[in-house]
Amino acid sequence: MQRLPLLLSALTLALPGAVVSAATPQAVDQRPEVRAVAGERAGAQASSDAEDRESLTVTVYQQGQALIRDQRHVGLTEGRSALSLLDVSPGLRPETLMLRGETDLRLHAQRWEQALLNRQALLEAHLGRVVELRRDDGAGGEAVARGVLRSALNGEAVVELEDGVEVVAPGSAWRIRFPALPTGLRAEPGLVLDLESASPGRQLVELLYLTDGLGWRADYVLDLRDAYLELTAWATLENSTGMDFGQATVRLVAGEPSRRGDVPMARALMTEADGLRARPEADYRLYTLPEPVEISAAQRSQFPLFRASRVPIEREYRVHGVAWGPAPGVQNPPVTVHLRFRNQGEALDRPLPAGTARVYQRDAGGEPLFLGEDGLPASAPGSEVELTVGTAFDVTAQRAQTAYRRLGERAEEQAWQVVLRNTLERPAVVRVTEQVPGDWSLLKSSHDPQQPSGAQGLEWQLEVPAGESVELTYRVEIRR
Predict the structure, then answer these.
(1) 428/433 Cα distance (integer angstroms)
(2) Which helix (H) or strand (E) holds 45?
(3) What pLDDT score was predicted for residue 452?
(4) 364 found inside a domain
(5) Any idea what DSSP says for residue 417?
(6) pLDDT in tens, 267-318
(7) Domain membership flag for residue 465
């Protein structure tokens, strides 16, 4: 088989979207002329990045997705063209894409192209083409050789020269110099649209799509005072898309839309901004940050939502026990701390999105203490909010069974004592809940119980004076 000389009679390379031809070189050092010939469906090529952006609006949902409205001025030719859109979210869900222009635009196809500009991709794109090899000659200059790239595997290039074959592995003294950057290779991912425009010229194009990797949550800081609290609400944004959203109008949606059919609902939210005041939108609540913000990639950012001062608060302590015997010994059940406030009044009276509330209080010396945290459920104006913030230190409980006797094979009688102690300098209201299994009757109680907390329990609400203790006793008959 005759070895193919470097003087090629023809050299043809098919690039994505175009037919590329190379002229025949007349000498070893002559590089082929590369020109792109438009195919029947290739059309014109256009590109757009963040520099063309007119406005960017990001509507963020709480479960990790966001609606992006990206408006750009883009130059298009009349008829068919390929538009490469850079600076779009890598988490884009292509099936949710909506496109609109100032003139009629028809979208024929779309594809997402990942970043491919690397050594292996360049080698593969130049297979069968003339490349240039360079290396230091040891005398301050460069040795240059040209040949045809025959193979590329794992970054190792096989180049056929006029007088032999050179294998160029990564780390070799030889450097490969390519004649041009092939079409289709890009340094960053992008969305390529095959579209048709009714008229030529620069026009405003709106791109609307959903992306994963961008969500928000509400975080609340509660500064607890004697009879009221100071509340600060924050919006915490998590951006794991891998892209910066610069100077974006940010809207926060409280609620969880379905993952199917949510684009029309989201599109309806793209209405005129009205500041940070929350308003209802299709069974959701929409909050708009007062000014454009930067949402950096791989960062957690916080922005203030609102503040509320002097919100009246009620504290309650709770202890829970189970009448299940016989149970010798003394028990020390935890006394949990609960806070209640009503979402009303001049200071509040607004929709509260679901989030996490962290409660702080200053000690006698004025130093802040972290009391605990709890999930704050979505709360409508006028509703009551209750938080469990931890275990009390100054309010304690001891619980002991004082009597137990069998009344037959399926019946028994139990007596219990619960001692509550309060070392605070103020009274403490303690709710005692005793779970009683089976069919039961209350025979005796030192304090009148409230309505049973359920079919299996009793409940008392006792006030324990500052620095004192209260003893609760009761006796039940249980039939199983």
Answers:
(1) 16
(2) strand 44-48
(3) 60
(4) no
(5) E
(6) 444 333 333 445 555 457 788 888 999 999 888 889 988 899 999 999 899 9
(7) yes
Q: Is residue 22 part of a domain?
A: yes
Residue 20 has pLDDT above 90, yes or no: no
Joined tokens for residue 194: 């095959």
3-state helix, strand, coil in the chain (%, to 5): 5, 60, 40
* Final residue before a domain boundary, out of 159, 177, 195: 177
Residue 142 lies in a domain: yes
Taking the C-alpha atoms of residue 250 and residue 276, their distance in angstroms, rounded to an integer, is 10
Q: Which residues, 6 or more positions from 304, have their beta carbon under 8 angstroms from its beta carbon?
A: 232, 233, 234, 235
Those residues whose C-beta lies under 8 Å from the C-beta of residue 219, and which sit 6 or more positions away, are 233, 234, 235, 236, 302, 355, 356, 358
Q: Where residue 460 sits, what CATH number does that domain have?
A: 2.60.40
- How many other CB atoms are found less than 10 A from the CB of residue 63? 12
Q: Mean pLDDT highest for which of 113-117, 230-234, 359-363?
A: 230-234
Q: Which residues of 238-270 are buried (b: 16+ CB within 10 A; e: fewer)?
A: bbbbebbbeebbbbbbbbebeeeebbebbeebe
Determine if the peptide bond prior to 326 is cis (ω within 30°): yes
Domain tally for the chain?
Answer: 2
Distance between CA atoms of residues 253 and 65, nearest Å = 11
pLDDT at 382 over 70: yes
- Kindly report the backbone phi and psi dihedral angles of residue 240, in degrees, each rounded to the nearest multiple of 5, phi listed first: -115, 20
Non-local (6+) Cβ contacts of 408 within 8 A are none
Tally of CB atoms within 10 A around 369: 10
Write out pLDDT tens, residues 50-81: 999 999 999 999 888 999 999 999 998 888 98
Q: Containing H/E element for 390?
A: strand 384-391
Between the ranges 11-20, 109-118, 126-135, 176-185, where is the mean pLDDT highest? 126-135
Q: What span, in angstroms and rounded, lies between the C-alpha atoms of 128 and 11?
A: 7
d(CA 398, CA 321): 10
Annotate 291-318 with b (16+ C-beta within 10 A) or e (fewer): eebebeeeeeeebebbebeebebebebb
- Residue 340 is encoded by which pair of tokens? 């209640």
Q: Which domain holds residue 23?
A: 11-40+118-177
DSSP 91-156: TB-GGG-EEEESS-EEEEEEEEE----SHHHHHHHTTTSEEEEEEE-SSSSEEEEEEEEEEEETTE
Among residues 161, 177, 193, the one where a domain terminates is 177
| Residue 157 one-letter amino acid | A
